[in-house]
Amino acid sequence: MPKKVTSPKKNSVPEEKKPTLAALIPRSITTEMEESYLDYAMSVIVARALPDVRDGFKPVHRKILYAMWTIGLKSTAKFRKSATIVGEVLGKYHPHGDTAVYESMVRMAQEFSLRYPLVWGQGNFGSMDGDSAAAYRYTEAKMKKIAEEMLYDIDKGTVDFVPTYDGSHKEPSVLPAKLPNMLLNGTVGIAVGMATAIPPHNLNEICDGIIHLIDHRDAEVNDLMEYVKGPDFPTGGEIFDIKEIARMYATGKGSVVMRAKTEIVEDKNGKFNILVHEVPYQTNKATLIEKMADLVKDKKLEGIKDIRDESNREGVRIVIELKKEAYPKKVLNKIFKLTTLQTKFHTNMLALVDGGLQPRVLNLKMVLEEYIEHRREVIKRRTEYELAEAEARAHILEGLKIALDHIDAVIKIIKQSKDKEVARINLIKKFKLTEIQAVAILEMRLQQLANLETQKILDELKEKKILIKNLKTILGSQSKMLTIIKDELKEIKKNYGDERRTIVNAHEVGSFSQEDLIPKETVIVAITKDGYIKRVAADTFKSQSRGGKGVIGLTTKEEDIVEHFFTTNTHADVLFFTSTGRVFEIKAHEIPSSTRTAKGQSLANFLQLGPEEIVKSVMPMDELGDFKFLFFATNQGLVKKVAIEKFQNIRKSGLIAIKLKDGDFLRWVKPTTGKDHMMLITLQGQAIRFKEAEIRAMGRSAAGVRGIRIKKNDKIVGMDVITNGQATTNEQLLVVMQNGYGKRTGLAAYKIQGRGGSGIKTAKITDKTGEIDSAFIVSAKLESEDLIIISENGQVIRLPLKSVNILGRATQGVRLMRFKEKSDKVASVTFI
Fold first, then answer.
1. What is the chain's alpha carbon radius of gyration, rounded to the nearest angstrom?
2. Is the CB of residue 723 less than 8 Å from the CB of residue 673?
3. Three-state SS for 140?
4. 3-state DSSP call for residue 458?
5. Please, which residues have CB within 8 angstroms of residue 256's CB and are 6 or more apart in sequence?
6. Apex CA 575: angle with CA 572 and CA 578, to 5°?
7. Cα dihedral 272→278→282→286 (10° resolution)
8. Which part of the chain is CATH 3.30.1360.40?
9. Is the confidence at residue 18, as pLDDT, over 70?
10. What crossing angle do the helices spanning 364-405 and 407-416 adopt, rounded to 10°?
C-alpha cells in the first residue's frame, strides 16, 4: 500500500521558524499601556479633535470640502445628494464612519452653528430646537461661494499633499485658506486630556485686525481689540465685560457671558410681555422653553401667564406673557438667573501649530500671526509655481521666435531630415535649441506662420517676460507678499463682510459704569405718556420760524402722546418719579439711542415698574449745582421738599419718594436752594407764588402739605422755581396752551401769596386757545435758547424763545404752532 501523506495543519508554523524563549522580550504591561495610550491620544489630538491654526479645520471638515471640490460641487454646480458626498469622503479620505462625516457636513450648513456657513444645504438640516437633520439619502448639498475661498490655488502647489488612509489617493494636509477661518467660525472639540473652544467672530473685524497687524508687527492684543471687538455669534444676542474679553484675547482662555436679546413691550390690553428675539449661541430653544415652563410649574418663576414660541423662518420670537400684577424687569432678571437665556462661553483657544503637529493655547495676536505666516507661505509657493509655468512657457516661446526668425532654414532642415527624430537633432545642433524647444517647433502648425499668429507669439513672449519679472520681484520681497495678503483680505471683506450681530457691552452683567467709554454729548430724551423712551442727538431738530409746521419728531403707538421732552448729557444720572411716588435712577447713556421718527423702547426694559405704575416726572441730575432740596407737587396741589442727599444710592427696585393719598399722584419735581419762591399753575389758568421757606424739609415717606387750592376738574399743569425769590424784569412766566397759543408774562405781575390759596389768573382761557398745557419760568439767559413744542401726533417745531411775545397776565397769547390736523394738540414743551 502506498504511504499515506498527511497535509500540514492550518496555520501551523514550521518547527525551525517557531520563536524560542530566548527571542521573547519581557515587557511591563504598564509601559505598554502608557505608550499605546499615548499613541492613541496623539492620534486623536492631531488627526481628529483639534483644528489646525492655519485653516481652522479639523481633518474631517477639510476632507469633506476637498471631496466636494474634487467632484465639482462648487457654488455654481447643481445640488447633489448628501449620500454622494458622504460616500466620496468615506471611500477615499475618511474611514471613521458615515455618521461622523454627515454630522460634520450638516453643522457646516447650519446658519445657527457657523457664523459663515461653508456648505449650502437643501432639505432638512436640523434646527435650533435640537431637531436632527434628515438622513443623507434625503438631503442635498454643495459648497457655498465663501467655502471656495478656502481651496483656491490648491492646484498650484501651495500646500503639501499626503497619502490617504489606504494610500490609494492624495489629500491636502492643510488648505490654502484665504479666509482666517479658525476665528471666523470658531470650533469646539474634545481630545484626550485637552479640549478646544473657540468662539466665532465677525469677518470685517478679523480682516481689519490682520491688516493692522501686518502694518504694525509690534501691535499688542489691546491694539488689535480696537478692531476685533469680541466674539460675534451667528445667533446674535449680547455679550458682557470688555475686561474679561480682553483677558480672553490676551491669554487664550476666559469666559464670556452671553445673554439673549430681549424686550419688554405692552400689548393692546395694557399688559406687559417679554419678547426674546435672539438666544445665546448653542442654546437649544425647545429645551430653554421647556425649562422655563418647568420653573413656572414648580413656582420658582412667578408672574408668568403663558410662554409661546412664535419663531419662524424670519427669526426667533419667544413670547413670555406676564400676569397683570407682575414686575416685568424682575421676572426677566429671574429668567436670566435660572435659565440658559443667560449663559457663558468658556473659551480655550487651543489649536495645532508647527505644521499641525503641536497643540498649543494661543492668544489673539498669535492666531493672527500664524494665519499671516501661512498665507505668506501659500503666496510664496503659488508665486513659485506660476513662475515655473511662466518660465517654461517663455522658454518654448523663445524657441518658436528663433524658428520664426529663421523659418526658411527650419523648413529646409525638416524637409532634408530622414524622420522626426533626425529633424529634432538637426534643429538642436543648428540653432542651439533645447529638446523642449525643438519638439515645440516640430509641433508648430503652418497657420502660425501667418503674420497675425506670429505677432501673437511675440506679444505673448513679451507678456511672459514682464510676468516673470513681477513674480521674481514678489519672491524677493516680503513686503510685496504681505501687500498681496492685505489686498486679498480687502477683497474678501468686500465680497463677504457683514454687520456685527452680537452686541458687545463693555460693562459686567448688572454693572453699568462705562462712562469712560461713552462720549459726553448733549442729547434730547423723549418719553411718552404710556412709557416709551428714546434719546436722540440735540442737533436733530433745526431751528425754524414762529408759526411754522415743524417736522415729524416721534412716532408713537396708537393713542399714545409724548409727555416728557428734555435735554441732558450722556454721563448724567436721570431720576424717574412714578405715579405711585417711587423714584428710580439710570444713566442717560443707558437710554437707547434712536432715530428721530422711531417709537423707542418701553421703560419697563430699564425700570422695575409695578402694574399700572407710570413715570410722571423725570429729572436729569447733571445741573444740580448748589441746590439742596427736591421740591414735589402732586396732581391735587400737595407739595413738599426733601433734601437731595436722601436720593443717593437708589436701588434697582426704586425708593419711596412721597407718600400719596388715594386718587392722587406725583406730577412735578424741581431742585431748589431753600430760599426760592415757588409757582404753581393750573389747567384752567390759575397761578400762585409763595415762598419755599413756608414748607419745612420732610422725609421721603412724608405726604406733604397743600400748595394751592384747586377747583373741581382743575389740576396742576406746571410748577417752577424763582431762584432766591429774586424775580428780575427779564424773567417771565411762559405758558403754552393746548391749541398752540402761548405768551410770556413778567413775574412782577404775580404777587407773593401764602401757600394754600387759590392764586390769581395767569391767562385768558378760550375755546380758541384751549386750556394751559405747560408753564415755565424763563430768564434772560434763555432768550438765546430755543423752544421745542411737540404735539400729540408727534409733530415738532423748534423756534427761538425770544420770538414768543411778552403780554399781560390775563391775555390769550399768540399762535406759536399750527397743526397739520385740527384734532391735534400740544403734548409737551421743552428748551434747547
1. 40
2. yes
3. strand
4. helix
5. 199, 230, 231, 239, 240, 241, 244, 245, 248, 344, 345, 347
6. 160
7. 40
8. 261-340
9. no
10. 80
Between CA 757 and CA 673 the distance in angstroms is 23
Q: Where in the chain is the domain with CATH 1.10.268.10?
A: 395-486
The x, y and z cell numbers of residue 613, run together, are: 405704575
On whether the CB atoms of residues 641 and 598 are closer than 8 A, the answer is: no
Ramachandran region, residue 685 (left: φ > 0; alpha: ψ -120 to 50; beta: rest): left
More confident residue, 310 or 449: 310
Q: Is the pLDDT of residue 443 over 80?
A: yes
* CATH T-level fold of 261-340: Gyrase A; domain 2 (3.30.1360)
- Alpha carbon distance 203, 178 (integer Å): 12
Q: Is pTM beyond 0.85 here?
A: no
- Do residues 391 and 468 make contact, with C-beta atoms less than 8 angstroms apart? yes
Instruction: Note the pLDDT tens digit of each residue in 527-548.
Output: 877 778 888 877 665 555 555 5
Nearest to 648 by CA among 668, 671, 610, 621: 621
Locus of grid cell 428721530:
596
Q: Shortest CA distance to 118 belongs to which of 107, 109, 126, 127?
A: 109
Max alpha carbon distance in the chain (Å)? Answer: 153
The sign one gets for the Cα dihedral 171, 173, 178, 183 is positive
Pick the CATH number of 395-486 from 3.90.180.10, 2.60.40.10, 2.40.440.10, 1.10.268.10: 1.10.268.10
Can you identify the CATH homologous superfamily of domain 515-831? DNA gyrase/topoisomerase IV, subunit A, C-terminal (2.120.10.90)
Distances (CA, A) of 709 to 659, 686, 705: 19, 10, 11
* CA distance linking residue 501 with residue 236, whole number of Å: 5
Superfamily for 57-176?
Topoisomerase II, domain 5 (3.90.199.10)
Cα angle for residues 674, 675, 676 (degrees, 5° grid): 100
478: pLDDT strictly greater than 80: yes
Of 170, 173, 176, residue with least CA distance to 154: 176
Closest CA to 546 of 821, 743, 815: 815
Residue 642: its H or E element: strand 638-643
CA distance 768 to 566: 28
Q: Helix or strand or coil: residue 288?
A: helix
Distance CA 222, CA 247 (A): 10
DSSP 619: E
Domain ranges in the chain with CATH number 2.120.10.90: 515-831
Given the C-alpha cell 423702547, which residue does it identify? 601
The rounded distance, in Å, linking the Cα atoms of 534 and 826 is 19
- Which residues carry out catalysis? 138
Extended beta strands in 114-163, E state = 119-122, 140-143, 161-163
